């Protein structure tokens, strides 16, 4: 029989109030509180907190507090990734972010979702879909990345966009819902 965590990580309906999951979220909440309360000149302290909070991160991860996440351990980050103020990652399932990707302020990344049928939703069970964001991507401020979305390498997502479906590589996409506006010439 699968644990609730195993169900969660496989995209099945799971009970988020499970003790193991609750303990892991508490650990992340305490670390994000510590990160968010740290001072700008406490660079090494922030780096140590991030190593514990997001152990699957490459070198050069920079997060400008405040920052919030569910678990941290389900976030996989390449090198030299930057998050501006007030970003949120609901990392119920894996969130994979390529190297040199930039996030504007208030970007929201949601893997978590809930059943559409009200009786299933009322049961308290929920599920999630993983998110993949390529290398050299720029996500504009206040964009929302919805469950199950992939964004291709070198693409730019306009500020305020709501990304509800996959975005290919080398494009500028924007809007609600987000759609490709034009291709980018990234050959140089």
UniProtKB/TrEMBL annotation:
Transmembrane segments: none annotated. It is an enzyme of class 2 (transferase). Keywords: Acyltransferase, Repeat, Transferase. Its EC number is 2.3.1.-. Residues 5-59 form the Maltose/galactoside acetyltransferase domain. It comes from the Bacteria. SMART domains: Mac (SM01266). InterPro entries: Hexapep, Hexapep_transf_CS, LacA-like, Mac_dom, Trimer_LpxA-like_sf. The keyword Ribosomal protein does not apply. Belongs to the transferase hexapeptide repeat family. This is Acetyltransferase.
